[in-house]
């Protein structure tokens, strides 16, 4: 559906991360930061749900072939994400705060479908 609309993969990623952020805000979460980079990797979205810090990985796939977006999160990526979260918490001096890691899977087609999986680790 959106083929050719984006200049590059990064632009497409940012589009779907913003789409996920808006979806989560509609569910009552508050946006804190997008695309936090450190030496261990990237955190797509950092949100808050009341006093819980929510770290969100967003994956988009154009179709459900090869498992689609739901199966796109590897254990290696999850480990990098966990190290990045630890780095974020340390750099922001956040200690003993409740955290959660969520996963947003978006699949394209005639209309984008979004699946929100809470607490993936």
From TrEMBL:
Residues spanning the signal sequence? none
Listed GO MF terms:
nucleic acid binding
One Pfam family hit: UPF0102
Instruction: Tell me the superkingdom of the source.
Output: Bacteria
Q: Which Gene3D superfamilies match?
A: 3.40.1350.10
Give the UniProt family note: Belongs to the UPF0102 family.
Q: Indicate what this protein is called per its UniProt record.
A: UPF0102 protein C1E23_10760
């Amino acid at each position: 559906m959106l083929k050719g609309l984006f200049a590059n993969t990064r632009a497409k990623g940012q589009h779907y991360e913003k789409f996920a952020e808006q979806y989560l805000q509609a569910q009552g979460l508050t946006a804190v930061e997008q695309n936090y980079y450190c030496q261990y990797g990237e955190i797509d979205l950092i949100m808050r749900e009341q006093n819980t810090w929510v770290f969100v990985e967003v994956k988009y796939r154009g179709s459900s072939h090869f498992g689609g977006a739901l199966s796109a999160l590897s254990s290696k990526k999850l480990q990098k994400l966990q190290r990045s979260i630890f780095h974020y918490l340390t750099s922001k001096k956040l200690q003993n705060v409740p955290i959660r890691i969520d996963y947003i899977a978006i699949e394209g087609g005639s209309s984008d479908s979004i699946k929100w999986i809470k607490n993936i680790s």
